[in-house]
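Bug report

Summary: structure tokens for Acyl-CoA synthetase differ between web form and batch submission.
Environment: batch mode, default settings.
Steps: 1) Submit the sequence below via batch. 2) Compare with the web form result.

Sequence submitted:
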Amino acid sequence: MAPLFPALTRTPERTALQFGDHRMTYGALAAAANGLARRIGAAQRVAVWATSSPETVIAVVAALLAGVPAVPLNPKSGETELGHILTDSAPAHILAAPSVQLPTALAEIDRIDVDRNPANTFASDALEPDDGAAAALIVYTSGTTGPPKGAVLPRRAIAATLDGLADVWEWTADDVLVHGLPLFHVHGLILGALGPLRRGGTVRHLGRFSTDGVTRELSSGATMLFGVPTMYHRIAEELPGDPALVKALSTARLLVSGSAALPVHDHQRITTATGRRVVERYGMTETLMNTSVCLDAPPVAGTVGHPLPGVELRLVDDADTEITGEVPDSVGEIQVRGPNLFSEYLNRPDATAAAFTGDGWFRTGDMAVRGTDGSIRIVGRRATDLIKSGGYKIGAGEIENALLEHPAVAEAAVTGEPDDDLGERIVAWIVPADPQAPPSAAELADHVARRLAPHKRPRVVHFIPAMPRNDMGKIRKRDLHG
């Protein structure tokens, strides 16, 4: 397998990383990463304290150069979660920025400080394994039950995903990406940091997301923006009163949203104000990226496009039978095969076996419908977003989009709850635009019924001050209670 980052030796003078005022060339990154790779040696695994800093990127690149699997750690993890990950992955070292104070849970693990300015330079000879199946990263993902599972991502999965996205997004070394995503997750780390490095381009990390930071970077040469729906919602809210932000976004070559569905209302507000559309893609920790909207595809808000090169995708019913033909609103579970898949859950052969069908399809647990053009529209997770009411399979996502079109609704989430007559009834959780004058439940039910169908209207409406969210901005529906 070819090196993951050929630009480390081909373009040493080009800027690779920018975090605030700190810039690092490919040559400097190669020196720092190669030196750290030699210190890591032949460790079984290393953990990376994944702060939003150049040290995190150096540490991950070093581990990849050394052929040692890296385990990114969320600095906000609680003691129980952190303890489970450390016990499960058993890293030989913890890599961290020198200024970071690590929690006591890490006290027994050998610490290696990451030096962003090494005194010695090192030859950039290839240390990388050429086996595409070799483990590259172990990223922990929370399921619906039990402690987080470590998804083992092979080197081929990283290469396949990044090269597939380069194909559909026309991503080149000339692109400068700006984002403010955390670096312990697939989106921020693999797409947002390793993606530009594989292309030979530049990543500018904001540290913390802000619309002012987006304006500054897109106005000074950045060509791409990666974000999650929460970020794009904040952008959409700011656009009417911020002409500088409007101008900056209008110059971007590519705006990408991921990690959750971007509401259609925010799509429309951003496009109307800037003339630019936000491209959505679909992936998860175990699969990296599965689909994306292509740059030359007709703009259709709410879809995640078509499978990436090399990725097979099918929709199946409850019996794992493929749903064929162009049946409108036929909801099925997404299953995928391809080089982008993880190889196993660490130390969990039972969970690994349960995640795949007998012929190698990965069960994503995501529910979707396929458009007449073959594009995929996600309607939600099987566990939390598929509502079976009155004999219908209803995706929570389309109801949420309809609710967000109501001017009195700032945020919306939809769940199901048991109902003796319907099986499940549709429940809406609403953050009103004006907490002092919320819309009535009947008004919202009628609003949805007119836009979708009467059986998709919410039967119960709860008004809440804010949505519970995780670090990636996803709504934690399991924390919503009646």
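Above is the batch result. After comparison, the two runs are identical; trailing whitespace caused the diff. DSSP finds 13 helices and 25 strands in the chain. The radius of gyration is 23 Å.
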